[in-house]
Amino acid sequence: MTDTYNPAVTPAADLDSPVITPVPEQPTGPAPIRQSMREDAHQARLWAEQSAARTRDAIREKPMHTTLYALAAGVLLGLILAR
Length: 83
Description:
Layout: H1 33-61, H2 63-82
Region (Disordered): 1-39
Organism: Brevundimonas vitisensis
Keywords: Membrane, Transmembrane, Transmembrane helix
């Protein structure tokens, strides 16, 4: 056997380095309610704008399909509500 133990190759050779990297200090406690509400409203606004843009693009790409889908949905809704 020519394999020899070489401690420089093992992961435990670098014992001076920290095992767990420290997490940067962050303010403790919950964020103020107004700040959280603004952030949530901003995220909701971005989602709504992206959804509206995707919907507009889909309608422009296939106007006949979307019209027929809307007509079918209206007929089904009318039948359900008429009962």
